Amino acid sequence: MALVLVLRNVLLLVLVLAVSVVLSFTTTAEASDNGFGATKQRELDRIWPGLPGQPKVGFSQFSGYVTVNQEHGRALFYWLTEATSFPHQKPLVLWLNGGPGCSSVAYGASEEIGPFRINKTASSLYLNKYSWNREANLLFLESPAGVGFSYTNTSSDLKNSGDKRTAEDALVFLLKWMSRFPEYKYRDFYIAGESYAGHYVPQLAKLIVNYNKAHSKSIINIKGFIVGNAVTDNYYDSIGTVTYWWSHAIISDKTYKSILRHCNFTADMASNACNDVVSYAMNHEFGDIDQYSIYTPTCATSLLSNNNATTTKHLRLKNTLLRRRFSGYDPCTEGYAEKYYNRKDVQRAMHANTTGIPYKWTACSDVLIKNWKDSENSVLPTYKYLIAAGLRIWVFSGDTDSVVPVTATRFSLSHLNLPTKTRWYPWYTGGQVGGWTEVYKGLTFTTVRGAGHEVPLFQPKRAFILFKSFLAGKELPKS
């Protein structure tokens, strides 16, 4: 995959389909849950009275496992945080983090859009003022098996994960989960995610659309999806990434020209010359910057040593350090999550690790990212299919991310050749420009000003306004 093997495996964070195969699991899946008693299992999954160190809240929470493949013993872990008000009237949003191999509990739930943040000592939680569960019921899924608390009893599953099976297992999960939570059947349903979930989200959406076509009484009422800093197309993403490095003065003119000369972005494998020049740029020109947020300082202390999540991060991104608190931005929460979710009392409260997984909970799985088998070169054809199916599709991009940068996303989306409905304009929140946006026929693209790879972490208020506008199907505010 040409430079992708360099740019994605070295760079990508976190913090991104055959229906017949899925159908073979579905009948058994639904019958199994109904046979056990959906109501009983639902109540067993309830988090009560709350998580250790959690402030008092008025919304319900549930977490636990759904088996997606009985033969292999694959089970996916979920965490549902219902809406803060009128949950029965609000949509269901499934959040997926990328990697591939990173946890939605670690990132989406604990750093970005979830209701809680973890304090520095991992002893307690505090409220996220801009949690997306103010507007929707949030379902966080650790996917695929091997991520976070999700597991498989078949070790070979960890060595042959890929896009196709991830989507298939996620569909089985949703069908079984909705049998356990029947109040969400037919509810307006959206999928959201970031980074490598730029693959997961549209691929799952397509699988659901196809499943619904084959079933007249489908319970998954999918309305659309929203993805941020999303891996989209290997070729255009790669060119856009290198362009971002050069245009933001991270690399020299000489290195930029050398990368363009030596890297064949259409090839399946990167040449030695391409590897060498990219490695030179990262080791000698980038410096010790946070490539997920190029304008915030790096952390002088507290590197997690002997930590799988940190090891995985270095596979994707050389010379990345954990970052210190700066202007309200504290991505060291990955370290706090490592401590908090490995606490036995937390695991008991969440009904997690019930089978005694033989490894610690980590934010990312280096085994999965090293052994990822199938990955589509481009999801642009999937976008076209889903636009034709009438889904609401929004793509957003934090503009200080150099890993899956705004230029990569713009290059990729431009090749959809969509007619423009509303021309490029600045959108506002709190009297300030929140970013820029353009509305096309079938898709809305927006930037989020001053945000890195994990947009809701860097710009929580702007991300919240973005999410509200998406759910409402309204254009972002012009003033």
Task: State Rg.
Answer: 21 Å
Span between N and C termini?
43 Å
Total number of beta strands: 12
Question: Which residue ranges are poorly predicted, with pLDDT under 50 across at least 5 consecutive positions?
Answer: 1-6, 8-33, 301-329
Question: Counting H and I runs of at least 4 residues, what is the number of helices?
Answer: 17
Helix proportion range: 25-40%
Q: Please give the largest β-sheet.
A: 10 strands, mixed
Task: Output mean pLDDT.
Answer: 87
Structural class: alpha/beta
Shape verdict: globular
Q: What is the string of helix and strand elements?
A: HHHEEEHEEEHEHEHHHHHHHHEHEEEHH
Give the amount of beta strand, in percent. 15-25%
Strand order of the largest sheet: 1-2-6-3-7-8-9-12-11-10
How would you sum up this structure, described in words?
It is a single chain. The protein is an alpha/beta fold and 479 residues long. Helix content is 38%, strand content 17%. The protein is built from 17 helices and twelve strands. Strands 1-2-6-3-7-8-9-12-11-10 form a ten-stranded mixed beta sheet, with helices on both faces. Strands 4-5 form a two-stranded antiparallel ribbon. A hairpin with a 2-residue loop joins strand 10 (420-429) and strand 11. The chain starts with a helix and ends in a 7-residue tail after the last helix. The model is unreliable at 1-6, 8-33 and 301-329 (pLDDT under 50).
